[in-house]
Hints:
By secondary structure, the chain is α/β, with parallel strands linked by helices. It is built from 14 helices and 27 strands. Strands 1, 2, 9, 10, 11, 12, 13, 14, 15, 16, 17, 19, 20 and 21 form a 14-stranded mixed sheet that branches. A four-stranded parallel sheet has the order 4-3-5-6. The chain has a four-stranded mixed sheet with strand order 24-25-26-27, covered by helices on one side.
Amino acid sequence: MLGPSSWLLHTASRVPQKEAIFDEEVSLSFQAFYEDAAGMAESLRSEGEPGGRVMIAIPSGVASAILYFGTMIAEQVAVPFNPFITPEQLGSLRREIGPRWIFGPSTLKKIWKDPRFLTIDCYKDLSRWKCTSKGPKGFVYPDHDPSRLLNIVYTSGTTRHPKGVMLNGGNLEAVMRGILQAIAIDEESRIFTTLPFFHTYGLSQLWLMAKTGATLAIVPDITRMTTIKEILLMRKINTLAGVPYHFALLTRRGDRIDSIRLVTIAGEAPSRQLLQRMKRSYPKAPIHIMYGLTEASTRLTTLPSEDLERKQGSIGLPIEGVELKIIDDEGRELGVHEKGELMARGENITTGYWKKEKLTRQTIIDGWLHTGDIVEKDKEGYYYHIGRKDFVFKSGGEKIVPAFIERALREIEGIRDAAVFGRKDTFMGNRICAVVVKAKNSKLTDRGILSVCQSRLDRGWIPHEVIFAEEIPRSSSGKILYETLEKQISQSEGREYGRKSERIDS
Length: 506
């Protein structure tokens, strides 16, 4: 048996009484957690054939973790997904997956009138669906086929068309080898996360728990700062995993926590200001910046903490077992400091997208994954993320990469967050629109922002307009929702959304 179910079985046999996982409702040892997952597996197996899909729409916590492992033990395919996406997306997802069962909260059942929908609002609700199990006795476990499909995980969906990425046992075994080679997670680790389990970065915390015997603490709502602070201090948390948005909130008050000994951050590059705040808040913790995507089972590169200052802005080096190269629009491989699309190959790369064979053929060619990310590398082989190919737009004949300008804006003192997109223009093709969230008590002006941009950006990349906003809309994984942002601004035309300033040309 390969993958998370195997890891959990071995760890539960090795350290049965060690605390495995806890949330605000319940704490379980590895033995108790395994028995719950095995009991759920027996119920699922009695009701469906191997290979059936089980959709899991439960917020991150002990209950959703049990359903995730139980589904795989039952030789069925776990499909975690975001219960807060639109009803239209939910309906499309259900038609595409064709699930045997759907587990979700009672609020979602009101939308999904489906006999296959089973309501789970808390850990105690699992008792209605799972069989009582005391372990592997009488239970047949999956074989060691690395190609067996374990998960379908949908991409973040910053556009309207998320894709179902198929991940098998071989993918997850490979990515865990790479991750554990790069960062020090072991049985003594006590990890806190607020990451959702419907993204692979969140799932990878479950994988680490099962593989290493680490303890995982979960609070799905990052805004519950009082609860989170109490858990960090009282439950002896020593490892944090999150995206920049999470750490912006966690470090906002400037509290220093010396017990934190390791921090991992992914999703997008943290600003220099945020990194400084993190260093002050967690002075004894090495900070590892990581990069990856769902199609790579969550991870492609890591930047070691010792390179944080020397390689500012880098996403690091490929993890063990991953090959990377950069190509231009014609498919030619590029060299040092040449910008192009990142290609990746390795055992952690997905075999393709669920029910999207044409897209799979277009995206994975001869084993190489087109990541859709624009990067460059330096002479030492360290990679630097420039932006998403999907979001590139032309302005005045120049290809504009929003993420590059966004990083420059976030480095300006007094700016808490920023987003950039192109607004249609008859003469220029697109005007560069910067939406900015000011830090509390910041006296920064729109003209001041444009003035700084003139000194830090090429002339063609300076925003044509600045709009102040209260917040930038983001997904649960911290990614900017550009379509939502553009719609908000478009709908606000003619009424106050935020102050505007035109670009200053000299």
